[in-house]
Amino acid sequence: MRKAPFKNEPLTDFSVPANKRKMQEAVGRVRSHLGKEYPSIVGHQKLFLTVKFLSYNPSQKDQVVGVFQKADETHADMAVKVAAETFGRWSLAEPAKRADYLFKAASIMRKRRLELAAWMVFEVGKSWEEADGDVAEAIDFLEFYGREMLRYAGPQPLTKYPGEKNALRYIPLGVGIIIPPWNFPLAILVGMTSAAIVCGNTVVLKPSSDSPTIAAKFVEIMEEVKLPHGVLNFLPGSGATVGNPLVGHRKTRFVAFTGSKDVGLGIVELAARHQPGQIWIKRVIAEMGGKDSIVVDSGCDLDVAASGVAAAAFGFQGQKCSACSRAIVVRSVYEKFIEKLIPKVKAIKVGPVFNYENAMGPVINQAAMDSITKYIEIGKSEGQLVCGGSALGGNGFFIAPTVIKDVHPKARISQEEIFGPVLAIIKADDYDDAIAIANDTEYGLTGAVYTKSRSRIEKAKDFFHVGNLYINRKCTGALVGVHPFGGFNMSGTDSKAGGRDYLMLFTQAKAISEKIIK
Ligand code: NAD
Questions:
Q1: pLDDT for the residue numbered 165
Q2: Could you give the CA distance from residue 313 to residue 300 in angstroms, rounded to a whole number?
Q3: Cβ of 351 less than 6 Å from ligand 1
Q4: Is 321 among the catalytic positions?
């Protein structure tokens, strides 16, 4: 049956009382399921191991969200071998059938939409809107990649050649290791996993230790749609203990990673090392960090720019790879822009996100809290604090939204990814200087400009070197299919998740040429 063209899943409007009530109920239901134990899954086996680890609620530090099995090298070896055995069968499954598993999973997620969002409220501290957006994006990935597989499986355009029948097929690679981050714990995890399996690969999914419960919910959904055993193996555990052996395994064919620069570079290096008996070069798809800027030009609507900067800097506590961590403002509107921005930042309510009123929740864990507050102290010596500037009380990892002005473009808080609610404001001499400052980091993920000038818009298109450039809008909130997402330089391999090239990364093209015998 032909599928209707892809369209994005609409977001839930929580200002509608009925939606708010339903979400409150979902939060209540999830609360009563906290603290359960989840097995690791290898083939048809559900593993309960001796060593466990816990996932906690960052809004309420001592509240356990889920109990998990801590896998080690032995389990990594077992999981890769099972995935390799399963590959023989799964790679031959009809593409339409493989796509159908994704469509069915999307339909279940739609029905469980608010419950899945509520799990994210508890496990990673997403506000209701952010959590709802994450589920919507996960559904989008399933619907988009399912359709993309149908397109890739169709006839591919080739130049006609007399006397031959030619075709090009996109065939799967083999066993993939999927390593997602915790910050889009459903969307990115579902995107990378579903892209890999719909192409006919089998995978071992190693979720982040900060968000294994949400991962387990997705695995449950794939069980419910009866994805054959061994296609999706689920192996929580620490990066070093289980991640390294998975990446280094000789039967691993590719790694799809999203996370920090340092871990990503380590994976690239390990995967490049040839193991005895390995007969391919491993492919690594690595999406990494960002140091994203919004340029504010003279003559733009400063209210709109200030709202865009505040939303992009402090949405999900600044813990998005696309978050605006630098506002680069031209000298003539510098003070005025800051005047407009500050009340907007001060109005942001911070607190436990199981309460709808709190637009900003906690940062993910103690290590993040320590690292972000350390950066705030560094920032105070590198510029002038204008608001926030410290951790807040309470039983969670709360940090006040922090703005530091007069920051030098080469300062540490201007160059290093902080991954928290800290915004540096940098003064530029003029628009060209602002673009030069924006380009002067090792990253190149997202960026935005607010300007009314057509020629400056065109200049940004030509010279602002980022994978995702936005004009007169904020630099977060990429939509599947609409804004294919991925960055340049140390932001990764620019693999453009949610775009038409993405599935190519999980396949290899086989050209088949048959001589026509008369
Ligand atoms: P992280 O690098 O700490 O961890 C990412 C994943 O790698 C986790 O699952 C972790 O368990 C695993 N890991 C850690 N060490 C490993 C090892 N040695 N071998 C294998 N796996 C290992 O990142 P994070 O804190 O989860 O996520 C935040 C980072 O992700 C930020 O830098 C952010 O910018 C980036 N990010 C990038 C994108 C993008 O599309 N470019 C999207 C989201 C997040």
A1: 97
A2: 19
A3: no
A4: yes
Measured between alpha carbons, how far is 128 from 360 in angstroms, rounded to an integer? 10
Each residue's pLDDT tens digit, 6-24? 999 999 999 999 999 999 9
Mutate to test the pocket of ligand 1, among 68, 263, 316, 446 (most ligand atoms within 8 A of CB): 263
d(CA 505, CA 503): 5
Average pLDDT of the chain to the nearest whole number: 98
Helices (H), 347-467: 366-382, 412-415, 431-439, 454-463
Closest ligand 1 atom to 259 CA:
30
Ligand 1 mean position to 179 CA, how many Å? 7
Tell me the whole-structure pTM to 2 decimals.
0.98
Q: 118 is written with which tokens?
A: 């509520």
- Residue 287 annotated to the active site: yes
- pLDDT at position 140 is 98
For residues 191-220, b (16+ Cβ closer than 10 Å) or e, as one string? bbbbbbbbbbbbbbbbbbbbbbbbbbbbbe
Give every strand in the sheet of 446-450, ordered side by side: 384-387, 402-405, 422-428, 324-330, 292-296, 446-450, 468-471
Ligand 1: which atom is nearest the Cα of residue 322?
Answer: 34
Residue 494 has pLDDT above 90, yes or no: no
What is the rounded distance in angstroms from the CA atom of residue 408 to the CA atom of residue 348? 26
Considering Cα of 461, then 466, then 471, then 477, what sign does the dihedral take? positive
Residues 6+ apart with CB under 8 A from 354: 27, 31, 59, 121, 122
